[in-house]
Amino acid sequence: MPVYFFWGADEFRMKKAVKTLCDRNLDADWSSFNYEKIPPEQSDAVMQGLNQAMTPPFGMGKRVVWLADTSVCQRCSAALLAELERTLPNIPDSSILLFTSGNKPDGRLKSTKLLKKHADIREFATIPPWKIEQIEHQVYQVAKDVGLQLTPAAASLLAEAIGADTRRLYNELEKLKTYWVEPKVALPPDAVTDLVATSTQSSLQLAAALRQGQTDRALTLITELLERNEPALRIVATLVGQFRTWLWVKLMTDSGERDTRTIAQAADVGNPKRIYFLQKEIRNVSLPQLKSALKLLLALEYELKRGAPETVTLHTKVMQLADCFRPI
To answer: Residues in domain DNA polymerase III delta subunit-like C-terminal (predicted)?
Structure first.
């Protein structure tokens, strides 16, 4: 298929996919003639891209036309839609037309429906920090890409240390591959502990401290997270996700549900076996406490998005959140 649409917030993975696509289709000796990246600020960018894609390549290899940061799936004029309808089905096999965007395509638009019909659409979304199983699965995938075997314990340590940061994950795995001289033997956890800087401060640890009513520890963690330049809204997103998961697990458990698969589905937990540990975490927490915490977190997110000062606002809300769970 000569048309591709890549989208998502994980720019690093997307750029690697773009490079792979170019390397596979461009002839190195003729790439300067057959490769063109068209930025979004260029006038009539999509029209130019369509015209270029219809032009035969010069010399060997294929022609690659990249429409970067396109908004064609967020807004599309009638004239542009008509041109897309005319051109996309007729892109020659000697060309590759690539659209990329950080935004999710609007499924209601005719341009999106058209691309779904004629393009290979790939998502490069950042995995939420609380989805541990998905992060560990990504660790295994990237390790396979770089040619490194991991023990389950090593993969778990990497997931905890790096989270969903794919750029750092690739860098750390390449470093571990250079260090590990036995490629046929799975990398042990000791190597990860010795070579990968593992931060003891994470947003998930902050969530645990808040759930336990540990105000001092929570304030220390939020300060250290901010000092490491962790974006405030990302911290809040992790907390919202974790407390929402706890809330659903508590709600389903208190309602008498015993099937872990049903609870996992309601709480959006990929591995039903994890429900036991989540239930254990919130055994001494009440449903009203979790509801109050989530309400405070959503208020915090609203204030930050309206431009409230990050440090003061976070510290204030952290104290209020920890107070929700303080033993009476």
So the answer is: 201-310
